[in-house]
Design goal:
heterodimer, A: mainly beta, globular, B: 115 residues, mainly beta, 4-stranded antiparallel sheet
Chain lengths: 114, 115
């Protein structure tokens, strides 16, 4: 069964450094998402991406964040200058076209900012 | 604003007890509804989903949920829990107004099952 993959599984970085989290979506899916889950809290939407542009973004997704599909397959989330409060689990999700579908989640990347 | 509310933060049960986790959402239009489970140290897994049709849906591992449109609810049930059901459970709603929109999650319910 096809699945969403994410790399790395765990990233440790110093405050102020740039990180790039990578996701490989399921091949025929058209919509891509990033969510995050701070330890002990609920899963929060960050951004959705369709047709090579952002469809929607949350208040969390400020100028420090960006997303792109650099090569038509990977879907990346970049945090330009990480803060302590960016420490969280980041999940990529993808969705095929159509209303009767579910989002498929990747295993997540645990980001630890020191 | 669209939101999802899960009534219980933490539920503690003994094995073989019955489980019901509440979920209510606020959105006036048509929705897809989901329950996800997150076992300790693992990622989100889909437990069950509702798109349309029979409001009583069955998922994996003996879980079921009932969609009551008039109450904007989608409660999760299991007649007899096992120790291996210890996990965090998230209700999520997908408003179908805009295709490709975001999932809105509840705050989660932590279930602890005592052997």
């Amino acid at each position: 069964e096809p699945e969403v993959t994410q790399t790395p599984s765990h990233q440790v970085t110093q405050m102020g450094q740039e990180v790039i989290l990578r996701c490989v979506p399921i091949s025929n899916h058209l919509y891509f998402y990033w969510y995050r889950q701070i330890l002990g809290q609920k899963v929060e939407f960050l951004v959705s991406f369709y047709n090579n542009e952002i469809s929607e973004k949350s208040e969390i997704f400020d100028d420090q964040f960006s997303v792109e599909r650099p090569d038509g397959s990977n879907f990346t989330l970049k945090i330009r200058s990480t803060k302590l409060e960016d420490s969280a689990m980041y999940f990529c999700a993808t969705l095929p076209q159509g209303n009767h579908n579910e989002q498929f989640f990747g295993p997540g990347t645990r980001l630890t900012v020191l | 604003a669209q939101s999802v509310s899960q009534h219980n933060h933490h539920v503690i049960l003994s094995e073989a007890a019955s489980l019901e986790l509440g979920c209510n959402y606020s959105y006036g239009g048509t929705v897809n509804l989901f329950w996800y489970v997150q076992y300790p140290g693992q990622h989100l897994q889909l437990l069950l989903k509702y798109f349309s049709g029979d409001p009583l849906v069955k998922g994996i591992k003996g879980f079921e949920a009932e969609f009551i449109k008039s109450k904007f609810s989608f409660n999760l049930r299991k007649p007899s829990v096992q120790w291996s059901d210890t996990a965090e459970y998230f209700c999520a709603v997908f408003p179908r107004g805009n295709q490709g929109g975001k999932l809105i999650f509840g705050q989660g319910t932590e279930l602890s099952v005592k052997p």
